[in-house]
Write a structure and sequence with these properties.
Glutaredoxin, two-stranded antiparallel sheet
C-alpha cells in the first residue's frame, strides 16, 4: 500500500526525547499536524534544518499547525540531538522502526561510517520526509528525499499554508 493524499496516514506513536509520548491519533490541531522525519544525530544538515524549524515553531502554531520531528535514532542519540541542537520546544521522537519508516514512504540508507560531523551513521536509518496531516489523520501533503539535500524550506511551507488554509485548497496527487 502506498501513501496517498486524502487517505489515512500511517499510525505513528513514538517516545519523545525529554519524556512523554507522541501519538498522531491524539493530535488535535486546528488545521494540520506537520511530521518531519530527519536522518538522525549524525546529520549536520538535519541539525541546521531542525534548528530552523525550532525558531519557526511560533509561526506554525499561529497557523494552527502542530509540529513533530522523528528519526530512527535510539533514545540516547535523540536526547543528544534535542539538547545539543537547542531544540527546547520541538517535540523529537525516537526509535522509528525501519518498517514504520517504509510505511511512510521514507527511503532507508545503510551506514557509510562517520559523517562530516564526526558521528557514525547507524547501520540502517531513514532519509528525510515531511508530511502534513489533517486532523482526521488523512494525508494532505507529503514529500520525501533519497538524500539529505533538497528538503522543503520551512518559510515556503509557511507561505503555502497561508495560501491553502483560507482557500480550503484541496490535497493534490490522489488520482
Amino acid at each position: 500500500m502506498s501513501l496517498m493524499p486524502n487517505k489515512p496516514a500511517p499510525a505513528l506513536e513514538l517516545s519523545l526525547a525529554g519524556g512523554g509520548r507522541f501519538s498522531l491519533a491524539a493530535e488535535k490541531p486546528q488545521h494540520f499536524t506537520m511530521v518531519v522525519f530527519y536522518r538522525g544525530l549524525h546529520c549536520p544538515i538535519c541539525r541546521r534544518y531542525l534548528s530552523e524549524l525550532e525558531s519557526l515553531l511560533p509561526e506554525f502554531e499561529k497557523r494552527g499547525v502542530s509540529v513533530f520531528a522523528a528519526s530512527s535514532d535510539p533514545q540516547d542519540r535523540a536526547e543528544q540531538a534535542k539538547s545539543g541542537w537547542g531544540l527546547a520546544n520541538l517535540r523529537v521522537g525516537y526509535d522509528l522502526s525501519i518498517e514504520e519508516a517504509r510505511k511512510w514512504g521514507l527511503y532507508v540508507s545503510r551506514s557509510k561510517g562517520p559523517t562530516s560531523a564526526g558521528v557514525v551513521e547507524p547501520d540502517l536509518f531513514n532519509e528525510p520526509g515531511l508530511f502534513i496531516v489533517r486532523p482526521d489523520r488523512t494525508l494532505y501533503w507529503g514529500t520525501t528525499s533519497t538524500m539529505p539535500f533538497g528538503r522543503p524550506h520551512f518559510n515556503e511551507v509557511l507561505q503555502s499554508l497561508d495560501f491553502v488554509i483560507p482557500k480550503n485548497y484541496p490535497a493534490r496527487g490522489d488520482a
